[in-house]
Design a protein that fits this description.
This is Methyltransferase FkbM domain-containing protein. InterPro entries: FkbM_mtfrase (IPR006342), SAM-dependent_MTase (IPR052514), SAM-dependent_MTases_sf (IPR029063). Helix 3 (57-67) crosses helix 4 (85-93), helix 3 packs across helix 11 and helix 7 runs parallel beside helix 9. The protein starts with a helix and ends in an 8-residue tail after the last helix. It is built from eleven helices and 14 strands. The model has no long low-confidence stretch (mean pLDDT 91). An eight-stranded mixed sheet has the order 5-4-3-10-11-14-12-13, sandwiched between helices. It has a four-stranded mixed sheet with strand order 6-9-7-8. The chain has a single domain (2-292), classed as Rossmann fold (3-Layer(aba) Sandwich), CATH 3.40.50.150. With 300 residues, the chain is an alpha/beta fold. The protein is globular, with a radius of gyration of 19 Å. Helix content is 33%, strand content 28%. The chain has helices spanning 2-21, 45-48, 57-67, 85-93, 108-115, 163-169, 187-197, 211-216, 223-230, 259-264, 283-292; strands at residues 27-32, 35-40, 74-79, 96-101, 121-124, 127-128, 133-142, 145-150, 156-161, 178-181, 204-209, 233-240, 245-250, 273-279.
């Protein structure tokens, strides 16, 4: 009976999405984990966080724990800020300031709706990339998220900003302590670049680790661990994309533990991880990860 109910619920949800996708500009106000925000009706975030879902709470708990160990507001970089949901939830959970980076012209108006007027938030309307300039890209949007594909023609020209330029333009975020990145496949390239630029403050790195999307973007998802190891990062906390903790590991061991992700590549219901990585010389970050995620990640 439960299986029948689950199938029926899934069918109703997908039918609802079909209807809502036809009216993407309709404004709705939703409460997400106690945070009120304005969203396009088509956005999936309220569905992912409804009921007893813990989706997204891991980042809130990480920000709260880090902020509790700081003498000043926690400085956060939000790469792929979307509609500002991460910024709002972090600010709800912690004494913080957030630098939001977002390039999608479809979501920028929603980001401004949600954060404009809050002096704890700064918005950069650019695509984080290897170099500052302009990129010709095509936006692939689905259910409230955007993946950018580089194209030779037929795309849109979006301004880009490098990590180095971003830091230079925002010296008040020099003491960056938490990085969140959700860029649908580019995280494995961008996160090491940000970590290198802000090496002096050794921020904790929280990002979406998706093997399939990384490869679609032309990036090697396994290479990120060597890059982070070379920068002195060591401890890794892993959550399922749905928000529940899977265990802790290290940057040296994790590449050999991605078997469950590989098994789902190419399937309709593939898996991805949320991961947080702390520097070897960041005892606070390492202690916070150990407190939030108990136990070790299973092998293979």
């Amino acid at each position: 009976m439960n299986a029948v109910r689950q199938i029926a619920d899934k069918a109703r949800r997908q039918l609802g999405w079909l209807v809502r996708d036809r009216f993407p500009g309709r404004v709705v106000v939703r409460d997400v984990h106690g945070v009120r925000m304005q969203l396009p009706w088509s956005h999936r975030l309220p569905d992912y966080t409804s009921g007893e879902s813990i989706y997204g709470r891991n980042l809130m708990e990480l920000a709260e724990a880090l902020a509790g160990r700081e003498d000043a507001p926690l400085h956060v970089l939000d790469v792929g800020a979307n509609v500002g949901d991460t910024a709002l939830m972090v600010l709800h959970a912690a004494d913080a300031r957030v630098l939001c980076v977002e390039a999608d012209p479809d979501y920028l108006p929603w980001l401004h709706r949600n954060v404009d007027g809050d002096d704890r938030v700064a918005v950069v309307e650019s695509l984080l990339a290897a170099e500052t300039g302009t990129a010709t890209v095509q936006a692939v949007r689905a259910g409230g998220t955007t993946r950018f594909e580089e194209v030779d023609e037929g795309g849109s020209g979006l301004s880009t900003v490098s990590a180095d330029q971003l830091r230079a333009d925002h010296p008040d975020f020099a003491n960056l302590r938490l990085v969140k990145s959700d860029t649908d496949g580019y995280d494995v390239v961008l996160v090491p670049a940000v970590a290198r630029t802000w090496s002096a403050s050794r921020p904790v790195l929280f990002f979406e680790y998706d093997l399939e999307l990384s490869r679609l973007a032309g990036n090697d998802p396994l290479a990120v661990w060597k890059h982070l190891a070379d920068l002195g990062y060591e401890d890794v906390a892993v959550w399922h994309g749905g928000g529940w903790a899977l265990g802790r590991t290290t940057v040296h061991a994790v590449a050999a533990q991605t078997g469950p992700l590989e098994e789902r590549v190419g399937r309709r219901s593939r898996n991805y991880w949320d991961v947080a990585v702390a520097h070897h010389d960041d005892p606070v970050g390492r202690e916070v990860l150990a407190a939030l995620v108990s136990g070790m990640l299973a092998s293979g």
